[in-house]
Design brief:
The chain is an alpha/beta fold. It has six helices and 14 strands. Strands 5-4-1-6-9-10-12-13 form an eight-stranded mixed β-sheet, sandwiched between helices. The chain has a two-stranded antiparallel sheet with strand order 2-3. The chain has a two-stranded antiparallel sheet with strand order 7-8. β2 and β3 form a beta hairpin. The longest helix has 12 residues. The chain is globular, with a radius of gyration of 17 Å. Bound molecules: cytidine-5'-triphosphate. Cytidine-5'-triphosphate binds next to α3, β9 and α4.
Length: 205
């Protein structure tokens, strides 16, 4: 099968030397890519800026911003059997990034932010019959309710939910999978590769 996996954070430019980003390490997405390759699948890995080794045999596409990630997904998702959006995509970006390095001034600086595209939401709206869409929900509060809300709003088949304290920027993860038909599957927690293997074992047809 052709599997598209997104991983890592995005960076949203403030000026030529500054950006808004988050603590995603990319390790969960890269572990999913490794696990899928080991099962013999064709893997396209669309990755934000990370500092970890690239799984051999993955078709790696490097991106920086949410807009670049959205374009890469538009290019590769249409003929994918499965899309797994594991990336921690920025929801907002500076509305007016500076072309020159910003100089400090007296008083406060107000940064105006605008929404980025909801990449997974767009995929959900244009889902091909037979295509499987899997999202991630990393939450600090109300994990199950937030995850189920995203599963429904984004028209997903599965959502992988984890608490930020259990899996965001860490070496290990603890994930619960929710399926659109109501099934709930807590996966054994462990290192990200073992969690990725259990996750694929549950979701692959
Ligand atoms: N995602 C995406 N595009 C974005 C933001 C998130 O495709 N601009 C994807 C992530 O890769 C992940 C899921 O959507 O699979 C997480 O959704 P999130 O943004 O957290 O959900 P929202 O419904 O926007 O809820 P909220 O921001 O209120 O938590």
């Amino acid at each position: 099968m052709k599997i598209v996996i997104t991983a890592g954070p995005t960076r949203e430019k403030i000026d030529p030397v500054r950006y808004i980003s988050n603590n995603s390490s990319g390790r969960m997405g890269y572990a999913l890519a490794t696990a899928a390759l080991d099962l013999g699948h064709d893997v396209t890995l669309i990755s934000g800026p990370v500092a970890i080794p690239v799984p051999e045999k993955a078709n790696l596409i490097k991106v920086v911003s949410a807009a670049e990630m959205a374009q890469a997904v538009r290019d590769h998702a249409p003929d994918a059997d499965i899309v797994i959006m594991c990336a921690a995509v920025a929801d907002y970006r500076p509305a007016h990034p500076w072309d020159s390095k910003l100089k400090k001034m007296p008083g406060k600086l107000v940064l105006e932010l605008e929404r980025t595209e909801d990449i997974l939401g767009t995929l959900g709206k244009n889902k091909r019959p037979g295509q499987m869409l899997i999202g991630f929900a990393a939450e600090t509060d109300d994990l199950e309710a937030n995850a189920l809300g995203k599963l429904e709003r984004k028209n997903l088949d599965w959502i992988a939910a984890n608490l930020v304290s259990d899996g965001f920027g860490t070496d290990t993860n603890r994930i619960t999978l929710y399926h659109r038909d109501g099934k709930k599957i807590p996966l054994p927690s462990g290192d990200k590769l073992s969690v990725a293997r259990s996750m694929l074992h549950e979701v692959l047809p």
